[in-house]
Amino acid sequence: MPKSFGMPLLLIALGSVWFLKSTALLPNTATLLALLLAGCGLLLLVLEGVNKSSIVSSPLLMYTGAAIWVYDHYDVRFSHAFSLGMVLAGLLMLLAHNRRIPERQAPRGGRKGPPAEH
């Protein structure tokens, strides 16, 4: 992308967010953050598939989004949400040790193998 596109795209993005916020169409910050985290967790799972890395990180991202939303809307105590998240993280880490879950594959186009010696 040419450098000349940076400033117009930034202005469009900031203007759009400002417009949505001033017209009350944009949800509050906690809801927006919760949706972004949950969406990132789902997207990560879709893009990477199920592997030892995504089986832990994807559900934790989704749980964090849900915990932020519940904390903001239902006044759940932080210690409750955090301790439940710790239990979930531990269970997911144990699940990742299962032999049926594949290892994370190297990214496409990346280096393969050790560097050649001269």
UniProtKB/TrEMBL annotation:
The keyword Transmembrane helix applies. Keywords: Membrane, Transmembrane, Transmembrane helix. It comes from the Bacteria. The keyword Membrane applies. The chain crosses the membrane at residues 29-47, 54-71, 77-96. This is Uncharacterized protein. It comes from Gulbenkiania indica.
